[in-house]
Each structure stands twice: as C-alpha cells, then as structure tokens.
Amino acid sequence: MLQDDIFKIGLIQMKCHQDSKANLSKAISGIDQAANQGAQIVCLQELFLTPYFCQVQDPSFFEHAEPIPGPTTDALAACAKKNSCVVIGSIFEKRAPGLYHNTAVVIGPDGNIIGIYRKMHIPDDPLFYEKYYFTPGDLGFKSFKTPFAEVGVLVCWDQWYPEAARLTALEGAEIIFYPTAIGWHSHEKEIYGKSQTDAWLTMHRSHSIANGIYIAAVNRTGFEKNSMGGGLEFWGNSHVLNTYGSYLHLSDSQNEEVIVSSCSRKLIEETRRNWPFFRDRRVDFYKGISSRWNSKNSI
C-alpha cells in the first residue's frame, strides 16, 4: 500500500527533429534532469521519437513503428532503472503486420513494463490523419499501480472525452497523464489560436475538478513542416493541475522545458470529502451514456 503523502512527477516538453536518435537522447536527458530534481514518475509527450508524421498519409511512415517491448522501450527501461523512477513513453506500436497502435507504456523503476494503454479515441482531421495509421485501442481505460502512485494514462484526442477521464479515475488513478501532440494550423492561429488553447486548458481543468484528481498534460513545442508545404505549430503549454483545477505549473508555448511538480494524495481525500461527486453519482440512471444518440426523434 502506498504510504507517502507526496509524490513528485516530471514532464518533458520538447521539440522533435528528424533524427530519432537525437530525439531519444534528448528525452532521456530530460528524464535524467527530472529525476535529479526528485521526480518519481516522468512522462514524455506523444510520439516523442519522431516529428508528428500524421500530418500526411504516407505508407513509408509505418517504418517508424516498433514492437513492445522493442528498442525504444528498452532504452527507456534502462533510463528508468538507472534513475529508480517510473517512465511513461508514447510509442508507435507495431502489434502485428498491418496492425498498429498509438500506445503509452508505463515502465517501473526496476526497468520492467508495468502495463500499456492503447489510445482509444483516434482523430481524423486536417493534418491529424491518425485513423490512417492507428487502430483504436482495445484495452479499455486503466489505472496502473506504481511504487509511487496509481497512474492513469490517456493520449491526446482522449483528452476531450469526460467519459475517458471518469472511467480512468474510477479505476483508482490518483493522477492522469496526457501525452499530447496538439498545435495550430498556421492559417488559423491568428483567428482561433487563443480560443483553441483556452478550450484545451479548460477541458483539462474540468477533468481535475470533476474527478478530484491530478492532471498532467505534456505537449510538444515548435513548428513542424510537412511534405505538402504546410505544417503545425505545436503550442506547448504543458501543465500540472491539482484536484481543484488550479495550476501547479503552466509552461509557455515556445520553449523546451523539464517540469517537476509535487502532488499530495491527502489533497485528493480532502477534495472528495468537500466535493463528493463520486458519492452523489446517480449510476442507476446513466445507462444512456453508452448509447450513440438518445433522441426520441431519431432512428
């Protein structure tokens, strides 16, 4: 049973370049820095090993995929063991020929894989063509017991769904990590940029408040071009929220950063005593949430 009140988490907000070895080296350096600052659980951004290739549909990018365990999880496992910390890495998983997932791996301080989460909600929007690459996850929403805290992991597009956060919290997670790759279309930033970022931050605050849980989102930063002549400007803003939706940390949009924050499990208990949302849930009347649409005027 976990006894310590405080657990410390780390996030690595970074720019990704074409050289995957350089990206891996930067990520491991960030984990080392976070661990040296006391971080016990460190999370990397979504698909940290490469630029965000889902901007275009190109079959050659399937060559980036690898099995789990595989070379990248082996490298992260060695880093976790060296630092006696938990590492959460986002991997383009090759599960079988023609079957690929966007997968988060939770690696324990002994270097062993504690578990994996496969991204459940897969977007298909301009410059976010993930349905071309990723099969939706089939493992459900999970909480992983680590020596330092119970952690849930959801990935990027999952962050817009209150059902995902709720079910992960109900599994026992004390904190939900969101490895993320989200940014602005260059032609939209001036008009919609602030409102898009504000909506993203507000959604995360709502998850923390509704569930009395810590939220940690780590996003990439920097502009990444694509082969069609456009690109995405990733908006950073990695953050940690306490159980009342208040910021323990909020990064800016431009800079790479190693973030370390302290979380208190006593605050989870205090919050849920004062705002007993779990107690007052009417589970006997939520059956309709599992339907696609409930209008009486539709078929």
Short description:
With 299 residues, the protein is an alpha+beta fold. The chain has a single domain (6-290), classed as 4-Layer Sandwich (Nitrilase/N-carbamoyl-D-aminoacid amidohydrolase), CATH 3.60.110.10.
Tell me what the structure shows.
- The chain has 299 residues and is of the alpha+beta class.
- The chain has a single domain (6-290), classed as Carbon-nitrogen hydrolase (Nitrilase/N-carbamoyl-D-aminoacid amidohydrolase, 4-Layer Sandwich).
- Helices cover 24% and strands 30% of the residues.
- It has 5 helices and 17 strands.
- It has helices at 20-36, 71-83, 162-170, 189-211, 265-274; strands spanning 6-13, 41-44, 86-96, 99-107, 113-118, 124-125, 128-129, 143-145, 150-153, 175-180, 183-185, 214-219, 221-225, 231-235, 239-241, 247-250, 257-264.
- The strands form 4 sheets. Strands 5-4-3-2-1-17 form a 6-stranded mixed beta sheet. It has a 6-stranded mixed beta sheet with strand order 8-9-10-12-15-16, with helices on one face. A 3-stranded antiparallel beta sheet has the order 11-14-13.
- Helix 1 (20-36) runs parallel beside helix 2 and helix 3 (162-170) runs parallel beside helix 4.
- It starts with 5 loop residues before the first strand and ends in a 25-residue tail after the last helix.
- The model has no long low-confidence stretch (mean pLDDT 96).
Q: What's the overall geometry? A: globular
Structural class: alpha+beta
Rg measurement, Å: 19 Å
Give the strand line-up of the largest sheet.
Answer: 5-4-3-2-1-17
Q: Which CATH architecture is right?
A: 4-Layer Sandwich
CATH class: Alpha Beta
Total beta strand runs: 17
- Strand proportion: 25-35%
Q: Could you tell me the mean pLDDT? A: 96
The number of helical runs is 5
Query: What's the order of the H and E elements?
Result: EHEHEEEEEEEHEEHEEEEEEH
The major beta sheet can be summarized as: 6 strands, mixed
Poorly predicted spans: none
Q: Report helical residue fraction.
A: 10-25%
Q: How many structural domains are formed by the residues?
A: 1
